Fold this sequence. Notes:
Layout: E1 8-9, E2 19-26, E3 29-37, E4 41-46, E5 67-73, H1 92-106, E6 112-116, H2 120-129, E7 136-140, H3 156-172, H4 180-207, H5 222-230, E8 242-247, H6 260-282, E9 287-292, H7 299-302, H8 304-317
Parallel strand pairs: 4-5, 4-6, 6-7, 7-8, 8-9
Antiparallel strand pairs: 1-2, 2-3, 3-5
Helix pairs in contact: 1-2, 3-4, 4-6
Amino acid sequence: MLASPGFAQGIAGDQADHHIQFITVDTNVKLEVLDWGGSGQPVILLTGLGNNAHVYDEFAPKLTASHHVYGITRRGFGASGAPPASGSNYSADQLGDDVLKVIDTLGLKRPVLVGHSIAGEELSSIGSRYPGRIAGLVYLDAGYSYALYSPDPGDTRLDAEELQSGLNKFLSGAVGSDQRKVIDDLLAALPRLRRDLETEQRQVELMQLGSMRRPRYEPPFAAAANAIIQGEQKYTNIDAPILAIFASPHDPAHLPPMTGRKKAQFVALDKAKTTAQARAFEKLRLARVVIHPNADHYVFFSNERDVEREMKDFLGSLKLGEN
């Protein structure tokens, strides 16, 4: 249900040409939904971790000539509601269900979902469970292991969870029970996790930081960000038309000071990981992959014209139902 019957123009200090409404998606949880207007089929923009939908204020109007463009600020961030930071409140499927509730409330038929960074998990949650609800998915440097799991390159946290689950089964096995399957799964999981940890350790050494997996978020959004990371799920197949745009390798300009040799090593590790993820997407039946070398993670900023053109080509290729 709509929390407010009308639209409010902008927010304090926000001069963007959009309207704002709040939509209830769960008990005491209302999401900020932006509407940049436009005509044609709906496009919904989802943000990276820590951002709100206003991050698209400059990019969204570029799509309104042929699409009605919306944006959603996920739970826990910006003006949206922030339920307690538990795993169930911020799991990938829960965040995907939030998007579906907005779609239903607005009465949208088969929108195209566009997601940056961590929003890839929301895209994959919906695309793997309800592909008939959407017309297509666009991953803006969002196609990493939280969006599509592949043993190569793997995922440190997801692989550690799988190993932990196997160890729990092994330790809780009744005396005399057949543990062969449990042991086989453990033996398969161990090398993957070892490889993940070795890669992450090398990245940490090169960056001279504490961790590559746990960026620091400031209050009041830190709890939600950590809960979302803990709520990542393993998606292995997405049966929907896909445009997956990768920055590979990422622009090294934002790396901390390091020697040229270390920078080259870090870039090589980054390229290997993103290339493996791109190859995983290429194996999907309906996916098209585009790689932009040395682009920023915010690829829709650093390579705006290219991304706009690629998205418009993809959107034009879809067989969209009437909204």
